[in-house]
Every structure is written in C-alpha cells, then in structure tokens.
Amino acid sequence: MKILACDTSNRVCSVCLWEDGRAIDTRFRNDGLTHSQTFMPQMHDLMESNRRKYEDLDVLACTVGPGSFTGIRIGVAAVKTMALVLDKPALPVSSLASMAWPLKGEDALVVALIDCRNHRAFAGAFYHGEPVLEECAEDVNDIRKACLTWRDENQPGKKILLVGTGAKLFLEQEAGITPEDLVEYREGFDEILPESVAAVAEKMALAEKPAGSEEAERETTEALRKKYPAVALMPVYLGKTQAERNANAQGKDLKEIPIRYYSTDEKVAGMALKLNRAKKEDLEEVHEIEIASFPDPWSVDSLWAFASDESVRTLVCAREEATGELVGYYALQYVLDEAEIAIIAVKRKFRRQGLGRYLLEQIVAWAGTKDIAKIHLEVRSENEAAVHLYRSFGFEEVGRRKNYYTDPSDDAILFCLSI
C-alpha cells in the first residue's frame, strides 16, 4: 500500500512516503519558517526525488489534531484538496496517537500530552497502540487522575509513560507523584514523526482489508474511499480557536462546528464491538445501566416497548465481541424523515473511552439508510459531559424546556442535528 502521510499540527512540518509497511523517504523541517512556506515544497521534493507520481498513491493521510489550529488547517486543507482532485481516500490521523506510536511495544500505558496553556493539555492514552481513554483538552489534574485510575483498574502494576510537551505538568511537584506511582517521562518523543503518522494510517487502512478476497487491493481502496472520503476530512481541535474565544468574550453567539473524526468503525477503545437489536433477555442488563446512568431511569416495560416495536422504534445494544459484555445502548424512534434519540447510555466502566461518540456515529450511519434529514434529542442542562459531546458532534441547541426534569429539577436542552 502506497501512502503519503504528513504532519503540520505542531512546530515541525513533516512528510513521509510509505510503501508496504516501511518508510521509503521522509522530510522533516523545523527551521523557523511557517508551514505555509515549507509544507507543499517539501512534499513535492519528496515525490520528485523518489520518482513517484501522486496518481499512483493509494492513500493520503494527515494529522487532523489536536495541536496548532493554524498548522492543522494548512495540512487538512492541502491534503483534502489533493485527495478530491486525485479521487483518493483521505485518512484522518490523530496527532496524539502518532506521538505515542513509537512506544506501542512497551507494556505500559502511554500518555501523549501537548501543553495548551493555562495548566491544560491535549491528551490521549494508549495501551499497545490502542486508545483506552477518549482524547481530550482538560486540566492536567483531571487528566492525571483519569490515567492513574485507568491504569490501577485495568493494568495494575504497569508503568505510565509520558511523552510530549505537557509531560512536565503531569509530573509537577504539587501533584505528589512518587516512585511508587510508576510514572516516567520518556525523552526524545515530544515531536511527531512522519513515519508514525504513516504507520497509524496504514493500520487504519488495513483494518478495511477484506479477508480471503482475490481482489483485496481494489476492494480495500473502495472501502477506504467510502469510509474516509476526501470531502469529510475535518480538523479535530478539541478546543476553541482564538477567534471563538474572542467572540465569546464579546458576547457573540457562534454556531457550533462539528470537530469529529469521520468514521463508523466498529472497533473503539481497543474493543471489537457488535451491535444488535435488543432482545427480551437483554433488558435486565440494559436496565442496570439505566439505573446507574439516570436519576429517572426507564422501566423494563418501557424498554421492551421500544425493543418490540419494529415499525418506527428500535433499541440497539452494543456488546464487546470477545466477551459478550454489554457496553452501551441507544433507543430511538422515527417518523418520515425525522428521528429522535430517546436514550443513549454507556456502562460506567467504559465511559471516557469514546463509546458515546461511537454510538452517535452508528445512529447517524443508520439515519443515512433511512433518508433521515434531522435527528432530535433532549438532555439535562447540568449533564455537562453529554452536552459537550452533542455540541462537538454538530448538534445545535434549538430550544429549552424550563424545569422539565424532576428529582432533581433541571432544564431540558433541545438539540437537533441536520444530516
């Protein structure tokens, strides 16, 4: 597989030509010039020096964030345009996953951190190259707590290896990190290597390769073009731009912009997942998550009303394929070209790993098969995690219902996503 991969998300601008599991050549610049000056010339030089043609590439890939907002836009805009002209898939690669990639062979929790000021960092946590905590932009104290908790609950006794410019905040004296915590900073991995971007892109691409097919290469390319179309390549900022912060300070109302990866992958947080319409024997497990998730949970009878109505309602369960454990579920109903998400929930131990976003992606993919134009939902205003998830996914607030919820009393925010 021939891949052209690049990174413009941080201070270094780099490009890699990758073929069949290895880097053929790379370009790597950090000489004070801006990415807008260096990116395209070094890409063309890479291709010309190795006598390669753009049209012979199978995949274009770039880091989409988090990192420098301006840098990300340069890379995404260039790669998106090239992929559209060449009719090639454009793979969105996480800069945090790329930074952590060289340590994927370590039997440790690898945490990539990029300092984004004000004691905050962009962060992602990986175990053997697989994400185990959802990428975030949060206070380092919260990141530290989440990483230590995940390690202690899932891989007790293993080290936590830190990479990136935010590592010093993780290890600051006030944090009280001791040798017994088994937390180490690994020097030499603060920059994103272009060959790491290419390797992560190849891993994403090979996940779409059909097994035992005589036309595997052609089918893989078609699958990638469908799953990662160039038009869908988007920045993943994980935070607000300076312009947005200025507008907020001035009291201006800004439309939320979707900043999600474009994917309907059935593997998330290192787990292969299987989705099925709920059966009656699933409902006790579903109800347990309901009780643990909501102050006003649905009854088993209400859940069964959704699960058993196959005309305009559905209740879908997501289970880990290896163990059969229920990790989450959603319920929705639809009429004509509009749908409403009645419930979406993730089991407590699987939260903060991207499962909620994954379920939303599955709902949107389903909506596309039903010609659904709009998806509605409502949520407690004090459920900050859910509100943030919906806004970041592109849902727009269209109204509020004062004191709609009871026990405790809370407003309902009404959201709508136009597809």
Polypeptide structure, described:
It is a single chain. The chain is α/β, with parallel strands linked by helices and 419 residues long. The protein has 3 domains: 2-94 and 192-249, Nucleotidyltransferase, domain 5; 98-185, Nucleotidyltransferase, domain 5 (2-Layer Sandwich); 267-418, Aminopeptidase (3-Layer(aba) Sandwich). 32% of the residues lie in helices and 31% in strands. It has helices at 35-49, 69-86, 95-100, 140-154, 167-170, 194-206, 216-227, 242-249, 283-293, 300-308, 355-369, 384-393, and strands at 2-7, 13-19, 22-29, 59-65, 90-94, 108-115, 120-127, 130-139, 159-163, 183-185, 267-268, 271-277, 313-320, 326-335, 338-346, 374-380, 396-405, 410-418. Strands 11-12-13-14-15-16-18-17 form an 8-stranded mixed sheet, with helices on both faces. Helix 2 (69-86) links the parallel strand 4 (59-65) and strand 5.
Short description:
The protein is built from twelve helices and 18 strands. It is an alpha/beta fold and 419 residues long.
